[in-house]
Amino acid sequence: MDTAINDFVVAIVGGGLCGLSLATALKKRSIPFTIYEARSSFVELGAGINIGPNALEAFRLIDNSLGEAIAKLCTRNEQGKENVWFQVRLGAPSGEYEDARLITEVQSPPTGSMTVIRNELLQTLARTAGLGNARFNKKLVSLSQDFSSVQLKFADGTDARANVVIACDGIHSATRQAMLGPNHPATNPQYSDMGAFRAVVSVDKLAAAIGWEQARNSQMYLGPDAYVVMYPIERAQKVNVGLWPWHRVPWSSKEWVVPNQREKMKSIFESWGETVHRIMDVMGDPPFYATHHVPHLKDIHQGQVLLIGDAAHAMTPHQGAGAGQGMEDVYVIAELLTHIDKTQPLQAQIDAAFFAYEAVRFKRADQVAQTSMQAMEWLADFYTKNITLAKLEEFATQADKRLRWIWEDDIAGQATTAVELMKSRM
């Protein structure tokens, strides 16, 4: 049954990391909201997630206590290497250089490689946001708008109204489908021509195979037509490992995860060095994960409905930057919504807020997504059989600079710019 709106209310569709972060931000800023989650509880799938310097800063801007809590949850490299993002090594012998030769240590202070288990982070966010405003088993099926509100209809036959809908429902966003329609090219995620053999392994078993330094600290190996990445998780008891071949063929399966791919993995990485072969021995019989992304969207809002996070720009993971972009989204839109004056006509204010949000956030998030796709090729195409010192040094220089613009952006400044732009249009 339809409910009347007597106050300014935000509907958050999706109770994942982005949705609960937004709930926390709105709660901190005393903005009424309701979370509509399709599942029966808050659940986040997957292993570790990277928290870069910009992501940690965004969490702190959302709620300073949240930033501190997340920092305590995270697993980092061992003492003395806390600011190292990755040690980058050769994945096979090349010319005069031996297998696993260190190319560079990419520094990313103050976080370095800071990872957290997705579900641990989600539960921390749920405790901070609270459950009082959450509605579960609410699978969105349609949206309709009038001049003052949005009606949300759910699969269980219920509906709700809000002044603003913020879609945080991820790569499979039902909001995006409802907004764009079933035939739009960006409605469904697309295969990105890449994927990974992935496994979570014991740090002790890995250390027995390749030594403590490489097992305990975040590593990247560059070899023939692929790269390998691994980093400690679960308070350094486990290591998340991913072997990323440059696939370059269409994905025909409807499933995104294909189990028991050890033989295929060994075949693809046959020409790699001993270190990566030892890593594969520890991985057992891992699945292959096909990586998908949301194609470039020309518009991320329609009327009073806005897509943020993976619903707007789900990206490949080759810069470890997807979560950070979602948190930047959350902070900027939360700051804009604090400037909505419910005593004044809402539509013009919402239009101005969404225009300002898109002007500030769209280009940056899209650029991060595009450069992440390019990073896969940059990493997978680096290796040759006769690498020179000059090429190693050139890579080290490029690696040091490549992510600075992501990590070191003025996130508070993004919000300031957006608010000024919003006010100029009201």
TrEMBL record:
<dbReference type="InterPro" id="IPR051104">
    <property type="entry name" value="FAD_monoxygenase"/>
</dbReference>
<dbReference type="GO" id="GO:0016491">
    <property type="term" value="F:oxidoreductase activity"/>
</dbReference>
<feature type="domain" description="FAD-binding">
    <location>
        <begin position="10"/>
        <end position="370"/>
    </location>
</feature>
<protein>
    <submittedName>
        <fullName>FAD/NAD(P)-binding domain-containing protein</fullName>
    </submittedName>
</protein>
<dbReference type="Pfam" id="PF01494">
    <property type="entry name" value="FAD_binding_3"/>
</dbReference>
<dbReference type="GO" id="GO:0044550">
    <property type="term" value="P:secondary metabolite biosynthetic process"/>
</dbReference>
<keyword id="KW-0285">Flavoprotein</keyword>
<keyword id="KW-0274">FAD</keyword>
<keyword id="KW-0560">Oxidoreductase</keyword>
<dbReference type="InterPro" id="IPR036188">
    <property type="entry name" value="FAD/NAD-bd_sf"/>
</dbReference>
<dbReference type="GO" id="GO:0071949">
    <property type="term" value="F:FAD binding"/>
</dbReference>
<dbReference type="InterPro" id="IPR002938">
    <property type="entry name" value="FAD-bd"/>
</dbReference>
